[in-house]
Amino acid sequence: MDRGTVGRANRGRLHVEVRTEGRSEVVTPVGELDHHTADLLREPLEHAVEQGRVRLVVDCSGLEFCDSTGLNVLLGARLKAEAAGGGVHLAGMLPVVARVFEITGAEAVFTVHDSLEAALDT
Predict the structure, then answer these.
(1) Has this prediction a pTM greater than 0.70?
(2) Whose CA is closest to 93, among 26, 29, 21?
């Protein structure tokens, strides 16, 4: 994704917006995160870390579905951000997505916030 000209990407079932708020890079996926759409989220997360934006906030309030591929994208971003001195904060997960994190145990390795505002306030 060329962030110089576009602030979002869309491949049918997933739309991703990226913006900077203070010291955080806010990445907002909307739709379904799965094997077919995972790169739409992976690319802006990796780009942010490469640019030194290592406090990543993923606004999950519009994420309707997340499979194991999507979970792996977020786990990979977490590892890269933490290696660079930052982290990944997840905000506003819908119950169906939160359940995936709960049953896999992934919720224990992320900082999870009830809302985007709460994630940005920390």
Answers:
(1) yes
(2) 29
Residues constituting the chain? 122
84: left (phi over 0), alpha (psi -120 to 50) or beta: alpha
**And the tokens for 62?**
């519009």
Instruction: Give φ, ψ of 94 to 5 degrees.
Output: -70, 155
**CA neighbor of 80 nearest in space, from 113, 107, 57, 47:** 47
Q: At what angle do helices 68-83 and 95-104 cross, to 10 degrees?
A: 70
Residuewise pLDDT in 10s, the chain (122 residues): 333 333 455 556 999 999 999 999 999 999 999 999 999 999 999 999 999 999 999 999 999 999 999 999 999 999 999 999 999 999 999 999 999 999 999 999 999 999 999 999 98
- Round the CA-based radius of gyration of the chain to a whole number and report it: 13
